[in-house]
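Readers of this paper often ask what the protein records in our data store actually look like. Nothing more is needed to write down the fold, since each code stands for a local backbone conformation. Below, we set out a record of this kind in full and without editing:
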Amino acid sequence: MDYIKIRFSDNFDELGSKIEKTIEYMFRSMNPIFSLSECTWKPQVDIYEIPGEIIIIAEIAGVNKENLEIEISRKAVKIYGYRTELPRVENIKYRLAEIQYGKFERILFLPASIDIDKVTASYLNGFLQIRLAILPKE
């Protein structure tokens, strides 16, 4: 059985990430060639809650499990990895190229604290599903 890499963390450095992205956006608006880091794309995500559980579904078609990682804290989930570009056919003229390749990252802040001992993840047909048990309120 193949497993998805899951790491557990106390929190994420969201402030540093936001500052870096703001500076990069400012310079990129003046000159699109300027970039502090390699561009990342954000997968589309659904988050919903059922009694006792939060469920996250991310659309990441074409990503190999080996290139997929998840970090989880009690209040947030970070999904990141890399999608390898498909081989390009020579001597063709693209009319539309919307599929994003390379690094991706998505940080999701949760509506309730979760029990990090009760987390499961599965990946099927291009969709990652993460099931998180909600901690009972004290």
